[in-house]
Amino acid sequence: MKNTSSPACAIMILWLFTLLFPAAAFAVGEGGRSELAKGANAVIQTEETVFTVNSLGSGTTRFKTTVVILNENGNHRARLYVPYDKLSKVGYIKGASYDRYGKKIKTLKNNEIKDVSNSDDTFFGDNRLKIADLEYSIYPYTVEFEYEVTSRNMMFYPNWFPQDGERLSVEKATFEVLMPAGMKLRYRESNLTKKVAVSTVGTQERYFWEVSNLKPLETEPYGPSPEELVPSVLTAPNEFEVEGYKGSMATWKDLGIWQNKLNVGRDVLPQETIQKLKQLTANAKTEEDKVRLVYDYLQGKTRYVSIQLGIGGWQPFEASFVDTKGYGDCKALTNYTKAMLQAVGVNSVYALIKAGDNVADIKTDFPSSQFNHVLLMVPMAQDTMWLECTSQTEAAGYNGTNTGNRHALLITPEGGKLVKTTTYGATDNQQIRSINIKLDEKGSGVAKVQTLYTGSQQEIRDGVMNHLKPEEQRKWLYEQVKAPPFEISKYNFSQKKDRLPSVTENLELSLRQCATLSGRRMFVSPNLMNKWTYAPQQKAERLSDVVRLSAFLDVDTVEIDVPTGYAVEYLPGEISYKSVFGEYSASVEVEGQRVLYVRTMKMYRGRYKPETYAGLVEFLNNVIKADAEQVVFVKNVP
């Protein structure tokens, strides 16, 4: 997809267009304006965004803003980023800055505007970035920016977020879209006090939005994303054109038909490769076996390189190109995998998706190009398999936090069709740990730890195993393992790449001060490595829904051998808590010199009413208290 710049092929289109059509900048004044400065790092005094659709294939954006920077945390508002590429042209960029008294500090000169590549080591394309910087060191100060960009990529109309960050106030911001007569604008409004005003100006239809006096956004713990809470307008065309390819996105089906035009005829493989694939899968007993063999072949043969030039931002390279070169971006590698599966008789479907760890799902009620990545969907008799074709290490069939639990647009022969990717619950995302500790008379000890991670809980360790050198792995473990002061004597990882992948981690730790000594007493914390530490503050009135994005199940079993001569003085009772958010239990038993501790914590993902917030805080505080419990031993006197 266009403007991709990460190994996950997560395209920056939405980000770029937020920059191209920003809705933020800031300022302060007298009287009523002082209220907007409270709690703000910057204030947008005025902002005007005007988008003019010239034709199916061309549009112009003019943007002008005045922003007051109140402190160093608002300095990023004094920098302007204007991306462009082969399909867009920057007409001009202007800027000036003023001190607190209104005296001009400087006028932006053309030779002060940086023009840099907007690519990384895995990315080859025509994406560039113009950067203007008017940062100043004495607060408050004011910056003005103005620019014009003309685009020949009309898949994307601007999205308007006039309050696009926390601790940002807006005195006044406007958004105007001018459409040629007969062309329809589609839009989706959220959190606006004033709806759109539509009028006719000459031969154009004018759509106008305005917001004013927006105080800084206050987000709440475990709350919705800021995008849900602020005023916004999403816009999109019905009909559009990119480099001669005309299409429609009036419906998801229509958008899929356009993508099909770009893909058609690009799935042809050399006969030599087809024969090789047939030989590779000749002994496969099931269709899933064939998929795994082809996917392994893909991972061993190719690497991810994003090549984005013009229509190439949406059109995949031919399968024969990838077969010869051994590289491609998400579109090319997905198309190549689809062609290889087709060669061995397995049907699969090219799918657009919005990738990113736990990002918000697309707006399913607003057909538009909201995607930044491509996956392959393989329908099965029992279940669907999803293939991440850009990764050389991912397990076949696993979505995870990057592409799971959201909608994808299948590009079928009949057009686009929305489907949901895999949703992973608490029992899919497990951390099952067993610990054996032998304590000495000084409270130190040796611990053998084995932990099984599955689903989302194995993702970080999958990366550590496959992308870090041994010395880097050891360093990472020292940073990540939460335990009393320790040294790592030994460690190793092993992995299973099933549809629900898992990583097993084995550690041998030398522990110092695993137990605390005080006179004849020894204080032992049986929860050695998995203490919950955070609970948000209670609020008199919760305003927003409670949102939990992750679900998991942790089970810790800890056996501790205490030195001879000690007897139990205090033993915590069995603990159990339940709420709509999850469940927790912990128990401790002592048999002779052996302590057995079992802790289970299961948390659900979901969205809950604001009135449930007090219950979440209470639940988490109870967990924190339970996790801090200690067993107290006293030494027998001879």
TrEMBL record:
UniProt keyword terms in alphabetical order: Signal
UniProt domain DUF3857: residue ranges: 57-217
A Pfam cross-reference name: DUF3857
Superkingdom per UniProt: Bacteria
Signal peptide bounds: 1-27
Keyword Acetylation: no
InterPro entries: DUF3857, Papain-like_cys_pep_sf
Keyword Iron: no
Protein name per UniProt: DUF3857 domain-containing protein
Organism of origin: Pontibacter akesuensis
